[in-house]
Every structure is written in structure tokens, then in C-alpha cells.
Design goal:
It contains ten helices and no strands. It is mainly alpha-helical. It has one domain. α2 crosses α4.
Length: 228
């Protein structure tokens, strides 16, 4: 099931991106363009979450190669990201959440924008920028610059805010109260529809830290069980 879901998310991202680039009218006066931007943003986030499941080995438990292959594909399609580097840093995040040793955490400031740009600085690489620049220029052969920016670049950029807010900032920001221990992580109030729409259930963040072996599509079960 995990492999089927992972491949489905990747294909949904590819399919909607193709549809948008080919068929959606590029005009700020076209109300549908905003729907497609938001949908592609959500699918971008799902793409990253699929890569994240690969990091935890939850796409197909006990199958290193399948998790690495699908995780690498999802991470690369997201924004030319290195799956190996993401996996190494994410393991540190789970080992030292909300501390100076956590690469996702900002010790110097709890300000949203300071923390966001610190977070991005730690993950963006020169190679990633070069890969994305090459892809952008190749795609210019078939699509206009405005189309690529509005329907590919903007959703990718918006999804970084979506993932950062619901998957890093909101769960781990101070104050770190007793209920957040030992993961220094808070969680959304149970609302499975809202949890899926905001960040593919990763607002249930305490549950993720408590059970990192649970794939994203089963996290709602952990949340439900925790409240009974």
C-alpha cells in the first residue's frame, strides 16, 4: 500500500503539473489559475512528505532500496534536493528536536521569518540551484517564462512555507511546555480534514515524533488513538 500511495502522489504531482503547464490559461484574471496554484502547492508538499517517508523507511518497511529509490525521486522532483543530505539532517532532527543540535531549529530567534530563512539556508545548496536553473531553461523550450513561474516555481515556493510552518515552526517553537516533552513538539487538535489539507497530517507532529515508523497516511490513526 505504501508503494502504491507514494507512486500515486508522484504521478498526481506530475500529472497536474503537466495539465497546468499545457492547458491552464495564464492570466491573473482567470480565477482557476489560483485553484491550480494552490492544488500544485499541496501536491508539492505531498511530494516532499513522500520523500520524508522514504527517509524513515515507511514507504515499504524493511526494504532499503525501495525507500531510497522513491525517496530520491520525490526529493529530486521537489526541487533538486539531495535525498542523502535530507535524510542525514532529518535523523539529527529526530535525535535532538528543538535544540542547538537540531538542523531544523533556530536557537537565535523564534521570529518566523528569521527561522524560515535560517532553515532554508541550511538546506539549499549550489548544486540544487544549478539543477533547478538547468531544468527551468530546458522547460523554456516548450513553455513560456510566465507559465513556468506561476504554475511551477510559485507553488514550489509556497509549499516551503506550508511545510515550514506546519512541520517545523508551529510544532517546535517556544515555549517548550511539559506537554511537548520529550520531543519539544506540540500537535494540532484532532481534525483529520484540516490536518490533511494543511500538511498531509504532519500537524499531528507529536504523534510523528512518538511513532516515526508510521507513514503519513496512517498518522491520523495515531492521533485518534491518543485521544481515546
Amino acid at each position: 500500500m505504501g508503494v502504491f500511495i507514494a507512486i500515486s502522489v508522484i504521478l498526481a504531482w506530475l500529472g497536474h503539473l503537466y495539465y497546468s503547464l499545457v492547458f491552464v490559461e495564464v492570466s491573473l484574471f482567470n480565477p482557476w489559475i489560483y485553484f491550480h496554484i494552490l492544488l500544485q502547492t499541496h501536491l508539492f508538499t505531498g511530494l516532499f512528505i513522500t520523500g520524508h517517508d522514504g527517509m524513515h523507511g515507511t514507504i515499504k518497511p524493511h526494504d532499503y532500496n525501495t525507500n531510497n529509490i522513491l525517496g530520491t525521486i520525490a526529493s529530486f522532483l521537489y526541487a533538486g534536493l539531495s535525498f542523502g543530505r535530507l535524510k542525514e539532517n532529518h535523523q539529527k532532527h529526530h535525535t535532538h528536536p528543538g535544540t542547538e543540535s537540531d538542523p531544523d531549529y533556530c536557537v537565535k530567534s523564534q521570529n518566523f521569518f528569521v527561522w524560515y530563512f535560517t532553515f532554508m539556508w541550511r538546506y539549499v545548496t549550489v548544486w540544487q540551484i544549478l539543477i533547478m536553473a538547468v531544468l527551468f531553461n530546458v522547460l523554456l523550450i516548450w513553455f513560456s517564462e510566465a507559465r513556468l513561474i506561476l504554475l511551477w516555481i510559485v507553488p514550489a515556493f509556497l509549499s516551503t512555507f506550508q511545510m515550514f510552518y506546519f512541520g517545523v515552526y508551529a510544532p517546535h517553537r517556544q515555549p517548550h511546555v511539559t506537554d511537548m516533552m520529550p520531543y519539544r513538539s506540540r500537535t494540532l487538535t484532532r481534525n483529520h480534514v484540516l490536518a490533511f489539507l494543511t500538511c498531509w497530517f504532519f500537524g499531528y507532529h507529536f504523534e510523528h515524533h512518538e511513532s516515526p515508523e508510521t507513514p503519513w497516511w496512517k498518522l491520523y490513526q495515531k492521533k485518534t488513538a491518543a485521544e481515546y
